[in-house]
Structure formats: structure tokens, C-alpha cells
């Protein structure tokens, strides 16, 4: 009879330990709370490494993802825990919004609105939607492990999916927010060459985004058939042809949407 309370206590202790282990695994599987807590700690951010990543995302993007294995071994998570890359990219978007706002004479409130639109909508909101879709799609359809037996080490973290978006968004940012800015006068002219070149830079930027997304998920050892992430490129190519045939200039329409210019 004396063994019954002991057995009950042991069972309760084991249950508590399992809950603690699950909580620990949950904390390790998501880096977003850690990133949020470090957003105001600029002295702890590694901006030099973030700049290195930005440079190599342009010249050798595969090399950026090679560091993920080291990060996984040292931090026990696939996603970055240093928000320096996000801070730099958001700052660049703000500078871009100021430049666009000054050119189109938006005024102070107009520039602030452009900054919020580019950072919160284009980068954060759209990126979160894309990351959520890719997080679900890769875990549901591309994960080679059975969903029931998956461990946290064999699941795509949502924070990592958002990291992939951030990495893929940087080349797109340079093309659509910087290069397009300097050549806008040529891109919005009403002729066939401007139409094709304008739509082509949008096609190139989205193809680069898709390719960067593919590289980000292809490096994860537990995912298979990641080449499926490249298939949307064919759809965008068809869309490019259709827009050119219909005479729709994406640069002209984008400027009209953002800055009310026509």
C-alpha cells in the first residue's frame, strides 16, 4: 500500500518533466521572442556579419546558407537570433522611402506613409504571409519524415521561413527600390522598349526571390523535392508575356499605386 503514493508521485514527476522538455523544445524551435528582445540592443548586434550576408546574397548566395549548419550546432536552431540583418534591411527601406518621397514631393506625412507601407506592408506583412505559407507547405508536403514522428530538429521553424524571406527580399529590394529609382524616367516612357525593360526587371526580381527561397529550403537535410519551389517561375514568365502583350507597364502602375502619380 505504501508503494501507491510513490508510484503516483513518480508519474506526476515524469509528467512535469515531459512538459518542461516540451516547453524547452518549443522555445528552441522559435527564435522570434529572442530576436524581439534584442531589437533594442544595438551594441549586441553583429552588423558586420549582416553586411557580409547581404554582399554574398548577391555574389554567392549558397555560401550564406552554408553557415546555417554551424548556427544549428551552436544555437540549436535553424533561424538567426541576431536581428542585425532585419534592422539593416528595414533601415534601407526607410532611406529608400525618403528618396522616393522627396522626388515625388510627398511631404513629411507622405514620406512617413511611404516608409510604413514599404517596411510594414511590403516587407513584414507580405513576408509573414509568404513565410507562413512556405512553413506550412514545406512541413506538410516536403518533409521526408512522417508528421507524427517528426522531432523539432526535423521541422521547418517559422522564424527560419521568415529568414529565408528576408534573404530573398534583399536582392528584390535592390532591383525594385534602388535600380528602378534611378532609371524610372526611362522605364515609364510610352514605348515598347520601356515596357519590356520595366516588366523585365520585375520578372528578374521575382525570379531571384524564388531562387533564393529555393536555396534557403534546399539546404535543410530533412526536406525533399525542394525544386518544386522553383515552379512558380514558369507562371511569372507567362504573366510577363501577357503583361507585355496587353501593354501594362508595371513600373508606371507601381508608382501610381505608391505615390499617386500618373
UniProtKB/TrEMBL annotation:
Alphabetical keyword list: Membrane, Transmembrane, Transmembrane helix
Family from the record: Belongs to the unc-50 family.
Superkingdom of the source species: Eukaryota
Compositional bias per record (Polar residues), positions renumbered to this chain: 1-15
Annotated region described as Disordered, given as residue ranges: 1-26
Membrane topology, record value: Multi-pass membrane protein
Transmembrane segments: 85-109, 116-137, 169-188, 200-223, 229-250
Organism, as annotated: Mucor velutinosus
Protein location: Membrane
Designated name of the protein: UNC-50-like protein
Record flagged with keyword Transmembrane helix: yes
DNA-binding as UniProt keyword: no
GO CC aspect terms: Golgi membrane
Amino acid at each position: 500500500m505504501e508503494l501507491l503514493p510513490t508510484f503516483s508521485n513518480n508519474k506526476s514527476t515524469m509528467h512535469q518533466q515531459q512538459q518542461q522538455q516540451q516547453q524547452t523544445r518549443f522555445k528552441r524551435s522559435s527564435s522570434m521572442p529572442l530576436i524581439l528582445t534584442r531589437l533594442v540592443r544595438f551594441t549586441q548586434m553583429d552588423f558586420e556579419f549582416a553586411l557580409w550576408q547581404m554582399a554574398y546574397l548577391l555574389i554567392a548566395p549558397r555560401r550564406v546558407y552554408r553557415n546555417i549548419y554551424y548556427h544549428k550546432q551552436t544555437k540549436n536552431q535553424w533561424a538567426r537570433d541576431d536581428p542585425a540583418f532585419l534592422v539593416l534591411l528595414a533601415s534601407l527601406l526607410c532611406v529608400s522611402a525618403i528618396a522616393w518621397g522627396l522626388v515625388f514631393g510627398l511631404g513629411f506625412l507622405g514620406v512617413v506613409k511611404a516608409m510604413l507601407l514599404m517596411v510594414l506592408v511590403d516587407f513584414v506583412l507580405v513576408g509573414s504571409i509568404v513565410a507562413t505559407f512556405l512553413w506550412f507547405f514545406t512541413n506538410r508536403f516536403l518533409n521526408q519524415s512522417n508528421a507524427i514522428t517528426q522531432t523539432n530538429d526535423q521541422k521547418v521553424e517559422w522564424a527560419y521561413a521568415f529568414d529565408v524571406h528576408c534573404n530573398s527580399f534583399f536582392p528584390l529590394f535592390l532591383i525594385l527600390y534602388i535600380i528602378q529609382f534611378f532609371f524610372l524616367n526611362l522605364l515609364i516612357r510610352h514605348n515598347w522598349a520601356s515596357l519590356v525593360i520595366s516588366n523585365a526587371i520585375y520578372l528578374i526580381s521575382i525570379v531571384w526571390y524564388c531562387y533564393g527561397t529555393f536555396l534557403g529550403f534546399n539546404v535543410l537535410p530533412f526536406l525533399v523535392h525542394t525544386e518544386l519551389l522553383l515552379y512558380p517561375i514558369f507562371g511569372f514568365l507567362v504573366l510577363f508575356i501577357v503583361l507585355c502583350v496587353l501593354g501594362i507597364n508595371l513600373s508606371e502602375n507601381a508608382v501610381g499605386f505608391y505615390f499617386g502619380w500618373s
